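Milestone M4 deliverable, item 7.
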Amino acid sequence: ELGVLRLVVAGSGADSRQFAEELLGPLLRYDEETHSELVPTLRRYLDCGAQVRATARALAVHENTVRYRLTRIAEVSDIDPDDLRSLLDARFALQILELATN
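Output delivered:
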């Protein structure tokens, strides 16, 4: 329920990694199983300031494709692409996993 604030309170790298895996795990598994692009779409959506049109241009896909993927993201995970707190949690989770893999 605390989202990213849980990381601040806990202060542990293991807790951070667990947070990221819990939040993004369903999307990562879905992408792997279906060869979809939900995680890259989410990453680009965040990079584009949560703007569908800019995300579509950056991914070289139609805006409806981005909207469809955002709907799938909401259905597959606990990430709500229309909620700022949820997007901030997703941003931190993506950064944590990126740091953990480097």
